[in-house]
Design a protein that fits this description.
The complex is a heterodimer. By secondary structure, chain A is mainly alpha-helical. Chain A is built from 13 helices and two strands; from the N terminus they run E-H-H-H-H-H-H-E-H-H-H-H-H-H-H. Chain B has one domain: Cytochrome c-like domain (Cytochrome Bc1 Complex, Chain D, domain 2), CATH 1.10.760. Chain B starts with a helix and ends with a helix. The chains are: A mainly alpha, B mainly alpha. At the A-B interface, loops of A face helix 4 of B.
């Protein structure tokens, strides 16, 4: 930790980063990595938890920017762009001035990261509400609008990754130029400085409250995993209750899963009910008033109504001049299941394509939530 | 223990058997009126286990391919794989309690298995066989 070029001789370790700042920094890093690794919808519950945690952290940091004390307060690192340019020129000349707190370039990275973080959680919540009908903004947007915000969310995440990359390069360069380990300083909080430098307080009480809140949040969010059993695996996102009908469930659920009406367009159901005496080589032998009652329920809640993401996408995928009688022939279904091997379909635990419930825990409800997909092992 | 409670419980427990007996006897009367002779459990069992060849696909079909050989156990639908509750009324008291349901499934299952509807005699024989289980 020798600071050879420094003007003054005596250097002692001084606390620059209080514990809440460090906790914020590394938890935010963990959130970003976790969210990145869980962007597949199958891990949506973990992804969303990372998002909520990030929201909490950013809100905390914005507050801490006013009450966090020396080095943590925004007014300690509010630089205009001249100062940023001067600093970058210094770096290019390999003689950047040393800042104990955030340097001008670093502070701009921080503001950029905070802004991107805010935008990312907002688009994430809107997308979650529109596309998956989950979260506090559930149903505010419809499916296609939710999808567009989801795309924006992804774009912003990539941007944030770029800024993170730049930030890392900055940290590396400055660490080399000043021969000082900035990463360690963010871990321990200490940097070598003159003995009379203002030091940051540890703020351990605030940090303890933060840790307790994060742990409590995690326990509340993931408690379902603790109470799950092999027969009743945990479903993090339970879809909205879809319309149900007793007669339909009894009659159409006798030989196979009662496929929810939202899985095929109305024209398919009409044809299927008109041809009920030759239903996939079975004569259903239903009485006319039974047929009428079931058909009314099927048509009323057909795929066109967009009750779920699957409904909306199945309907979009089928050409308007085609009347499919199989969900398993809809282009969207085929696309979603193209990676499943014949061996899997023939596995006795799966038992064929129409046995949706083998892999989709919510097949009987008809919601087909991503998070309820559970390949039998 | 209170005699009344025992009596009522016994009555409640007996309801499935009563409705089962009444559904079957109603159907037996109907089949007889359609010309069926005395019913034979042995003939019913023979039909139940007989294998038919489907004219279109050439597949082997029989009642046990869905209801399994051991009627006290759960079956599995031959084309969809869905679990079918045990057929033996002694294990599954809900069985053979509803005239409409029995009729509907006789049409479906006979057409699919034999390629034609079953005769009144055949249906009566099968019921005579199933009710002994």
């Amino acid at each position: 930790m020798t600071q050879s070029q420094e003007q003054n001789s005596k250097q002692t370790p001084v606390r620059i980063w209080n514990i809440p700042v460090r906790l914020f920094h590394w938890t935010l890093v963990a959130c970003f990595i976790t969210a990145w690794l869980t962007r597949d919808n199958r891990y949506l519950d973990i992804h969303v938890f990372a998002g909520y945690l990030m929201t909490g952290l950013i809100l905390f940091r914005l507050l801490w920017g006013f009450i966090g004390g020396p080095y943590a307060c925004f007014h300690d690192f509010s630089f205009d762009w001249h100062e940023v340019l001067d600093y970058i020129k210094g770096v290019l000349n390999k003689k950047p001035p040393r800042f104990l707190g955030h340097n001008p370039a670093g502070s701009w990275a921080i503001y950029l990261l905070l802004t991107l973080g805010v935008l990312i959680v907002i688009t994430g919540l809107l997308g979650l509400g529109g596309e998956e009908r989950q979260g506090p903004l559930a149903g505010l947007l419809n499916y296609p609008q939710g999808k567009r915000l989801q795309d924006l969310h992804e774009l912003l995440a990539w941007l944030m990754l770029c800024v993170v990359g730049t930030h890392l390069i900055g940290v590396l360069v400055e660490s080399l130029l000043h021969k000082e380990n900035l990463v360690r300083a963010m871990l321990t909080g200490y940097k070598p400085a003159k003995a009379d430098t203002i030091a940051a307080a540890s703020q351990w009480k605030t940090a303890t409250v933060m840790v307790i809140m994060i742990i409590a949040g995690g326990v509340v969010w993931f408690q379902g995993y603790l109470t799950a059993t092999p027969e009743q695996p945990y479903q993090p996102f339970v879809g909205p209750d879809l319309p149900d009908h007793d007669l339909w469930r009894e009659e159409c659920g006798a030989c196979h899963l009662a496929f929810h009406p939202s899985l095929l367009p109305a024209r398919s159901w009409k044809t299927m009910m008109a041809e009920q005496d030759t239903h996939f080589a079975e004569d259903l032998f239903l009485e006319p008033d039974t047929v009428a009652e079931i058909e009314a329920f099927l048509v009323e809640n057909s795929a066109e109504q967009g009750l779920t993401e699957a409904a909306w996408k199945i309907n979009q995928s089928i050409p308007k001049d085609q009347t499919l009688l199989r969900i398993t022939e809809a282009p969207y279904w085929l696309k979603k299941h193209q990676e499943i091997s014949d061996a899997t379909w023939q596995d006795p635990k799966v038992n064929g394509k129409v046995n949706c419930a083998a892999c989709h825990l919510d097949a009987a409800k008809g919601t087909f939530e991503d998070a309820a997909m559970h390949l039998p092992n | 223990m209170n005699i009344k409670v025992i009596g009522i419980t016994a009555l409640l427990l007996a309801i499935p058997f009563y409705t089962q007996a009444s559904a079957i006897s109603e159907l037996e009367t109907e089949y007889k009126s359609q010309g069926a002779e005395a019913f034979s459990a042995a003939a019913g069992e023979a039909l139940w286990t007989k294998t038919f060849i489907d004219a279109k696909s050439g597949d082997k079909r029989s009642c046990p391919i869905c209801h399994t050989a051991d009627l006290a156990k759960e079956g599995k639908h031959a084309s969809t794989g869905k679990v079918i509750k045990p057929m033996a009324p002694s294990v599954n008291p809900q069985r053979l309690t509803e005239v409409k349901k029995i009729k509907k499934w006789f049409v479906r299952n006979c057409k699919w298995t034999l390629g034609r509807e079953c005769t009144a005699q055949e249906k009566g024989d099968v019921l005579a066989f199933l009710k002994t289980l």
